[in-house]
Amino acid sequence: MSMHKPNDSGQEPEEIDTSKGFESSDVRVSGVVTFLISLAIFAVVTAALAYGIGKVLNARMAKEDGPPSKWARTVDMRPLGDLASSAEMQNKMAEMTQKFPTPRVQTDDGNQDVADLHAREDLLLDNYSWADQAQGKVRIPIERAMELLAQRGLPVATAAEQSPLMAGEIRPEIVAPLTNGFSRTGYELDQAAQQAADSRQVGQHK
To answer: In this structure, what is the dihedral angle of CA atoms 132, 138, 143, 145, given to the nearest 10 degrees?
Structure first.
């Protein structure tokens, strides 16, 4: 059985033998070889361009950074491993960051700094400490200070002269305290909840 291959040039169509059931002609090797050579040339040119661009960028950054010093030097971080799960590596990282002058970039979003600040304030508010040891002044806990104020009362201040109000002005009146202290952040509340849960677990195991 034979069939005619379509021909758009107007010439006599070529007869194709389909009795074998498969294509009897071979693929053109020259086309495959040309494609592979072109692909290899493209890969080599791309790698050369990438290498050249990298060298140019590194040279520019080195020029902007200036000569190496104790503050500008290359540090290999690979020996530190996984910082998130290695306490030893985290300590090494902390030692390295302490070498940089202040102000330093925060390693978190600032929640721990606020928690540390509130912890220091709690120590001053809830414990006795020296305010001025040379003069014998002692800082007392705030609860004790409130008890003493409730017993003795606040000193009465002399009335200060008030200037007359201008047209359209209203004298401000304070009807409530301006503040009742700082509020705990969400980070501190989560820490307190975690500590309470840990305490309950320890109590259950006992």
So the answer is: -90
CA-CA-CA-CA torsion for 81, 82, 83, 87, nearest 10 degrees? Answer: -90
Q: What is the per-residue pLDDT across 45-80, written as a single tens digit (0 to 9) for each?
A: 999 999 999 999 988 888 887 777 766 666 676 666
pTM beyond cutoff 0.85 = no
The angle at the Cα of 155, spanning 153 to 161, to the nearest 5 degrees, equals 140
- Rg of the chain, C-alpha, whole Å: 41
Instruction: Using CB atoms within 10 Å of the CB of residue 118, give its burial: 0 to 12 exposed, 13 to 18 middle, 19+ buried.
Output: middle
Task: Return the beta strands (E) in the chain as ranges.
Answer: 2-5, 14-17, 129-132, 137-139
CB 17 within 8 A of CB 2: yes
Cis amide prior to 103 (ω within 30 degrees)? yes
* Residue ranges per structural domain of the chain: 26-67, 109-151
- Within the chain, how many helices (H) and strands (E) appear? 5, 4
